Amino acid sequence: MTFAVRLIAFAVSLVPFPALVAPWVALDGLEGTYNGVDSMALLVTPTAVYMFGVSPLQAAIVSVGPILILLLAIITSYNYHRRRSIPWAPPAMFAVAMAISLGAGSFVVSTHYGLVLVMLASAFLILHQLAIRIHVALQKRQKLPTIHRALAVATGAGRYRWSER
Prior knowledge:
Number of helices: 8
Structural class: mainly alpha
Radius of gyration: 19 Å
Largest sheet: 3 strands, antiparallel
Helix content: 55-70%
């Protein structure tokens, strides 16, 4: 069970990678929907000059935000692969995704399922990191052993063996 939880958490940490090619936002004045990769590519198009002229902060949120999400996803998945805790990256990823959705109000007309997937994955990872923190605190204080053991399994922090030998 512990191995399965670790595997699921690692799989969730990989969700932002395929979500980068799913539709993220529809931008005001531009036709169609843009995914994370398209939003990154806006930095090198003539549209970027217009966007940064209208609102530099919102243009940076829309075009640099996906780059930040990609970097945070790499850091998070690498740490999950190494079985290391990374309490700051999932909240940062969630904050950047929310900034793209809500902070670029004059550019973003609607949010689509790719960005919502990033938000959901980062929210799950935030809860997982919070459960790990609670588990570690209970383990150190040696309090509430029943909850401590349950969290050891639920967070994937407990021990597992490949065989019964």
